Amino acid sequence: MNEAASKKPIGVFDSGIGGLTVVREIRKLLPKEDIVYLGDSARVPYGNKSAETIKKFGFQDANFLVKMGVKLIVVACNTVSSVALDYLKETFKDVPFFGVVEPGVKVAIKETRSRRVGVIGTIATVKSEAHKKLFPEGYEVIGKACPLFVPLAEEGMTSGPIAKSIAEHYLFELREKVDTVILGCTHYPVLKSTIKEVLGDKIVLVDPAEEVAKEVYNYLHVNRLLNGEGGNLDLYLTDIPPHYESLISLFLGERANNIRKVDIENL
Ligand code: DGL
């Protein structure tokens, strides 16, 4: 085993704190790994920005984690995974990257019976058709951007009549057309029960986070890079608004202690 390399932390980044839903799954499966998380909370959302800007922000996010000496990077942000994953892999050749698009597609292919799959995400994610491109021929993939889900989740309004009517507004068409829906945005897992209420029990919801955690585990195992004695979680945010503490717990599923503010634009 490469002792020094295995001790390095796992890097995870997202446009904001939504990516903590991915961290939660990684920590369930890999409790002894140290994790450095970067959330670009000062510039969230990415999902309604141009591809050029998303690439630039993604570069700065990854660059910060590379400088922190991580052993791999999980791009928890679906928007960056959809628009800029190949670019990041080419730019930072020495670091393995794990995106969230491919794992979601993999699970959806296993789950669907009708071969008609919905993908919900940000405007940029849906527009990129990144999921659609990964499905083999014979599958119908219907994308639906749900931009209001992000502020809804960030307001902590994950259930109740407002959340439900917004979900109805976005999802009523999908309900009739697909049997599986990929939650293609970091924020959506916290809205899962409302989304389920609207889509009904027969539609399978796919959260790529569990699959990403498995892929990271497999990679570390195969490459003998598992850390047996870590478990720290360091959160770096580009802004720390006052209401974030309770919101972080909502996404992460536990309280976070080490939260620091960081500037990633001038590294
Ligand atoms: N993290 C983003 C994603 O998963 C959602 C928030 C945003 O638009 O930046 O696509």
UniProtKB/TrEMBL annotation:
Substrate binds at residues 14-15, 46-47, 78-79, 186-187. Keywords: Cell shape, Cell wall biogenesis/degradation, Isomerase, Peptidoglycan synthesis. Pathway: Cell wall biogenesis; peptidoglycan biosynthesis. One of its GO terms (molecular function) is glutamate racemase activity. Its EC number is 5.1.1.3. Provides the (R)-glutamate required for cell wall biosynthesis. HAMAP family: Glu_racemase (MF_00258). Belongs to the aspartate/glutamate racemases family. This is Glutamate racemase. It comes from candidate division WOR-3 bacterium. The gene is murI.
